[in-house]
Amino acid sequence: MLTAAGDDEPDLVVGQDPPTEAATPRVLTIISHVMEKLVARNEWLAKQTKGFGKSLEAFHGVRAPSISIGKYLDRIYKYTKCSPACFVVGYVYIDRLAHKHPGSLVVSTNVHRLLVTCVMIASKILDDV
């Protein structure tokens, strides 16, 4: 195998891009995919039932933000320096909230606000020293 580094540096295969420190952790990609599927299903349910519960009303916006969930999580990760564990715990908080209030749906008008709030709370618990 041809390498581009010396003996004291990590081996890099010629022709491969070096890993970047700012790369998005895979767990964020997975969480964003799961959240997008959840929102799509809940949007469909909201149309079928003509609305949703009032317990998440404080998080509703007038319209859905133009930024995707994946890009939103990337921005939070990039600018807040939260550990990937905060995003996992934040997702768990949203899941618990959805189970506690089954009549309320996580939809496109509230998902971004729920995400930033839950990640912030998880960061305070996990990352603050």
Automatic annotation (TrEMBL):
Family (UniProt): Belongs to the cyclin family. Cyclin U/P subfamily.
Protein name, entry field: Cyclin N-terminal domain-containing protein
Keyword Cell cycle: yes
Domain of life according to the entry: Eukaryota
GO BP annotations listed: cell division
Cross-referenced Gene3D superfamilies: Cyclin-like
InterPro entries assigned to the protein according to its UniProt record, in alphabetical order: Cyclin-like_sf (IPR036915), Cyclin_P/U (IPR012389), Cyclin_PHO80-like (IPR013922)
PANTHER family named among the record's database cross-references: CYCLIN-U1-1 (PTHR15615:SF121), PTHR15615
Region (Disordered): 1-20
Keyword Cell division part of the UniProt annotation: yes
Molecular function in Gene Ontology: protein kinase binding
Alphabetically ordered keywords of this record: Cell cycle, Cell division, Cyclin
